[in-house]
Design a protein that fits this description.
FAD/NAD(P)-binding domain; Enolase-like, domain 1; 27 strands; binds flavin-adenine dinucleotide; 398 residues
């Protein structure tokens, strides 16, 4: 199938990379780039790091200089939302009343933060996904402010580190016993807990939030499930995110924890998905949906190539990182909530490189604590193993 009209919905890390890949690989047809945000594409990891700390101006987050965006020779529809997908007429209905016809569609609408319904609408209550969110949150992070963060995942713990660094009094609340326990297991969770305690962050783990207190519409505290109250000038809700798929409702695409794709990132003929919104069949790791910055770029490329008729399964080694105080945590592979085992250094003190293994002894994930060089070597082992497994699978299916 030849394509000469491509619409990209969501022009951030994944969508922009898809558009660039299409052009780089020789696609010369019409290219329409739709994003509900009015800003040119920008990067999100610095929102909970450099921007929140006040070290970077927002202009520094821009993903490409204006000349590179112009060089795409695309029709930009910024500040316009996709509202409906019609797979029969092959058009996307847009919020300005127009319709964007396509023969190739890239879905890259990312995720939106989950909220606490009982806290919504109060002043001082925040989520963190956009530049506006980060700037608003930053305004409240003044020295001495009581900052309460619900959720001790990566976003919550990164924001806690920034708030503590800015001189706020920080409390992190999570129903699990340790921060990042769900993502990296109890031993690394314990280490992360100690890191935050060393910076005077109060951790109320094993606790849920059941309500908020307010004065004149402004949050002043949260209520825990045991009835205790914690004072809050600022409340950050960091309890995960959900794929933005409402505009795909009734389109005929399968929506199951994101846009359901095959191993080529294809959701339907001529329709691909990439980035946080895409759930795809990884050839060796099974069905995945990753909210990782590097995956957004790599999957944007893969999805664009699929649109152009190339048939290469998308089989990355997943990677993400997190910066907290002077620590960079890096993770490759698919970690579970089981414990990691150190292969260099100690999980209890100082830098370390650690692995998780399958029952057969294969490395399934590697994690590093300020150990980037050692981690690159371990990553290579994961790459090699994945390649062996892929070729074994191909042999089996012959
Ligand atoms: C604060 C923060 C810190 C992070 N830190 C890290 C980190 O340290 N390491 C890491 O690996 N990852 C990190 N991430 C995750 C990483 O940023 C994401 O994986 C990446 O941004 C995903 O890119 P995406 O293009 O898939 O989605 P997004 O960046 O979410 O982009 C989706 C785009 O779609 C647009 N859109 C949505 N709905 C519509 C619609 N109906 N019509 C038109 N446009 C629409 C949105 O405006 C947006 O521009 C962080 C994320 C956040 C929010």
């Amino acid at each position: 199938m030849t394509i000469d009209q491509v619409v990209v919905v969501g022009v951030s890390a994944a969508g922009l990379t898809a558009a660039e890949t299409l052009r780089r690989e020789g696609y010369a047809g019409r290219l329409v780039l739709v994003d509900s945000d009015t800003r040119p594409p920008y990067d999100r990891p610095p929102l909970s790091k450099q921007l929140l700390r006040g070290e970077w101006a927002e202009e520094k987050l821009t993903l490409r200089p204006p000349a590179a965006l112009e060089g795409l020779d695309a029709e930009w529809r910024l500040g316009v939302r996709a509202e409906q997908l019609d797979l029969v007429s092959r058009e996307v209905e847009l919020s300005d009343g127009s319709r964007a016809p396509f023969d190739g569609l890239v879905v890259a609408t990312g995720v939106r933060p989950r909220t606490l319904p009982f806290a919504a609408g109060r002043q001082g209550v925040h989520v963190l996904r956009s530049v506006e969110d980060a700037l608003a949150l930053r305004l409240g992070m003044v020295p001495g402010a009581e900052v309460v963060i619900v959720g001790a995942g990566f976003l919550g713990t990164e924001a806690a580190a920034v708030a503590a660094g800015l001189g706020c009094r920080v409390t992190v609340i999570d129903p699990l016993d340790l921060p990042l326990e769900r993502q990296l297991g109890p031993r690394i969770g314990k280490r992360v807990a100690q890191l935050h305690r060393d910076h005077d962050v109060q951790l109320l783990c094993g606790n849920g939030v059941t309500g908020v207190r307010e004065i004149g519409g402004r949050v002043c505290g949260v209520v825990l499930n045991d009835g205790a109250e914690v004072a809050a000038d600022v409340l950050l809700v960091a309890i995960g995110a959900e794929p933005v798929t409402d505009w795909l409702k009734d389109s005929g695409l399968v929506i199951e924890n994101g846009v359901h794709c095959d191993e080529f990132c294809q959701a339907a003929p001529g329709v691909v998905a990439a980035g946080d919104v895409a759930s795809w069949q990884h050839p060796t790791l099974g069905r995945l949906r990753l909210e990782h910055r590097m995956n957004a770029t790599e999957q944007g490329m893969a999805a664009a190539r699929t649109l152009l008729g190339q048939r290469t399964p998308f089989s990355p080694v997943p990677y993400f990182w997190s910066d907290q105080y002077d620590v960079r945590i890096q993770v490759y592979g698919r970690p579970t909530a089981a414990d990691f085992t150190a292969v260099e250094g100690s999980l209890d003190d100082g830098p370390f490189a650690a692995v998780q293994r399958s029952v057969s002894g294969r490395i399934t994930a590697v994690a590093g604590w300020n150990m980037p060089r050692q981690l690159r070597g371990l990553r290579q082992e994961l790459v090699n193993q994945q390649a062996v497994q892929c070729s074994a699978d191909r042999t089996d299916s012959k």
